[in-house]
Every structure is written in C-alpha cells, then in structure tokens.
Amino acid sequence: MNLVKKIYKFLSPHYQTLFLEYPVKFEARFGHGKPPHEILYNLIDRYKNDYSALLKEFLNYKDIFSSIKVCDEETNNINPCWNNGFLPGLDIVALYSLINKFKPKHYVEIGSGYSTKVAYKAIKDNSLSTKITSLDPYPRAEIDQISDEIIRKPLEKSDFEFIFDLKPNDILFIDNSHRILPNSDATVFFTEIFPKIPKGVIVHIHDIYLPYDYPQFMCNRFYSEQYMLAAYLLANIDKYKPILPNYFISKDSELKEILKPIWENLECKNIETHGGSFWLLIN
Known about the structure:
It is a single chain. 38% of the residues lie in helices and 11% in strands. The protein is α/β, with parallel strands linked by helices. The protein has a single domain, classed as Vaccinia Virus protein VP39 (Rossmann fold, 3-Layer(aba) Sandwich), CATH 3.40.50. A 7-stranded mixed β-sheet has the order 3-2-1-4-5-7-6, sandwiched between helices. Helix 6 (114-125) links the parallel strand 1 (106-110) and strand 2. 37% of the residues are buried. The mean pLDDT is 94.
C-alpha cells in the first residue's frame, strides 16, 4: 500500500484505526505450516463419517453443478457462478445440496450476495416453498429481486427476535464482518443470538478455518469471529454439532476425494474447489 493510501485510510471517516498499548504480531498459531489445534481437530474429526455420508449425497447434483457457468461467462445477474471471489466451489456445492436436503421453510441470511443466488437456485430448481429473508445493509442490487423479506440494516441495529422463531431444518446463514469488536455484528451474533437459537436449526458461518487458524491475509484483516466459535465448540460440541466444516474437508485427503467426480465434471472451468463454510446443527 503506497503512502497516499495509508494516509487516506488513517484520516478517512470510512475507516477506523485500532490503537494497541503494545504490539501484537498477527499470525496463525495453528495450521498453515503448523499443526492444527489438537483438541479442536479431535472434536471436529469425531464426526468424519457423517461428513463423508453428506458429501456422497452431493454427488446426486453433479449435472446441476456442471450447468453453472463461471462468472466471466454468466450474463444473468441473479444466477450463481463459479470463481466469484466470495463463495468458493465447495461452499456453493454444500449450500445448494443442504437446502435441497433439509428443505427449510425459512432461510435467513445475515450478509447476502452470491450465497443468496445459490439458495434461490436451489429453491427454484427443487420447487421448494422456502422463504428467503435477507438482512444486509448494503447488498448487491439484484438481491432484492430474489428475497422474500428484506432488512436493510446492520444486524446490531436490527430487531432480530424473529430468528428465535426458526424451526427444525430452517437455515441461518451468517456471513458478516467477521470481527469481534464492541457492538459489531459478529459480537452481537455470538453473544445475543447464537446461544438462543432453537434446537434443530441449521447454522452456517462463513470464512471459518477451524481446526486451523486464519490464513495470513485474514490475520492482516483482523478477522476474529472463529475464536468465538472455537470457544463454543470446546465448551459444548454436543450442542453445537459440526455437520460440514468445509475447510477441514478441503484439507482432508479422504473427504476431498469424495467430491472428485463433481470437479472432474467441471475441469474445463478451472474452478476453485476449496471451501470456508462451517455448518452446524443446534442440539
């Protein structure tokens, strides 16, 4: 970053500067060339057979996934597309497949975008009666076209009581600012919403690397919400049961191999096949 940009970011009201009393080196403690967090790894690995069974179900939609275009070729702005820069391949496959599996009556997004397009496609392709609620202060304009209910406020300024009315198999999809700070959306979610989500609800949180740490570029952005999730899992993984930790799957050779037929079908599209979604079932 050149000097002018640094000065602009320091002075602009659009950015905030964090001052620390002593320097902290932001770097990964687990994974990315180091071993994973041992306790978290063992807890998440406990359900490996369940992940395997789910991934095998995803193969049923292989032909549907092959019909999705890469973003450079997609001209319809409400269609999902590969290589979009926000939702990688495994996360697209998982979201589409899990909506079709659980058939939620209500799909709630806190943070909308390409995920909304995937959800909309899954609902339309499979003739589901799912209602889409989009809570996002500044989504892409086309998201309003495919959402049934629209809340254009930050989570921390919203009335989110409706979340506690979700029923078993409903989906709560979280993709927010990723930073645990005073009054941030991530802090509100983990302290005021997550502990009260009804049993049977499926929860998704994006950009989660557990049982590994954030990669360096996310450390540089001060991402921190996965440490809150890690605390929940360490304290009570039976209540917050992982059903699909996509980055863990991306790093596991056996699990990764299961989806090979999907990627081979898409080989000519040269798509990214990893994932950063973390799916849980509330027990």
